[in-house]
Queue: 2 jobs
Job 1
Amino acid sequence: MATNLTQRVAVGAVFGPLILGVFWVGGLALLVVLCVLVGGGTLEFYRMQQEKGLRPWVIPGVAASLLWCGAVYLYGVNPLTIPLAVLIGLIVLAGSGFGGQVVANIESTLVGVLYVGVLASFAYEVRSASFDGITPNETAAFSILILVSIWVSDIAGYFAGRAFGRRHPFPNISPGKTEAGYIGGLVGSVGLVLLASMQMPFISTWNAVGLGLVVGLGSPFGDLVESMIKRDAGVKDASAVIPGHGGILDRFDSFLFVYPLVYVYLSFIHFS
């Protein structure tokens, strides 16, 4: 356990500042890094589907995920509403069981695009958003705050679970997670955003609480979804590409759900 924790800390110390720097710069630099994560994450998802005996269309699926991110970079999310609706419709159709193995393969391909490519693209959308009265540097700082709050939620949940965890609400999905861990992660994310709002006057106290709750609830939900995918595939980790963390999806599972939820939250509220 100590060795694993040491590896996690070492990897975080190396790549954490790099990811933060990319979010600060934004633009093409963020798109490139996002495409690396999306391409690798989609590939991991398809490999897990192959463990189940399915045969997703790997190359077209990875390409579609990358093209989606490129389209968001060029045009934003709104012009993609119709194709997103079509994509969801196809997934529902595929999930109906019509067509047997062939349609099951199509379903797994489309789910990979939706789960990794579409969800991850919202990180770019939040970073590149424009708000009245907020400078570009403040927008960059806000997107970084969301990223750091995900990390804090994860760290606080980990240590709260180890110190106080007794009850495991989802033993068949994620047996290592405890109620104390979920509460600790929620308190950590809300507390961090509240503290940050003191230096970011464009975030009101109520919005700080709201954003903290969005991160604190969305982060473990993303972890649970990925745990369900791994359980279904019968694998422990998505891959072993990141020492101490597992795969890209193991490290960025919360990331995939938090940024879309933050985007939806921002669509309904104003900062001031």
Job 2
Amino acid sequence: MLALAAAEPATITAGGLATAGEMPLTFLRTILSELRGADLIVSQRGPERGYRLTRPASQISVGEVIRVVDGSLTDVRGEPVRHAAYDGAATHLRQVWLAADTAILGVVDSVTLADIVSGELPVHLRPDSPE
């Protein structure tokens, strides 16, 4: 997705993306299919063949992409955080996991592909910004 964001509005072939991402083409085709199904990318045929983003990179969050490719961003023992349950002294540990999940979502949903490509994270996420 970052390679497509950096190239926008141009297209990149699956082979070009596989090379850029240093991954097997067969594995990449599965990911491309998932991204197309989520309407994040579109394939184009003809002389300008390849893949491109369906929206500007500034309108696609990292969280959107991660959820399409990986599903839930955080889990506890293989289950979504909201299903975590503990007994005894750990009863309230679920609240910690929910807070962590909220924090992670707050970061990945506020960063766009364009932010990463440009190297300019939102001000509130910059490690050197005043708190």
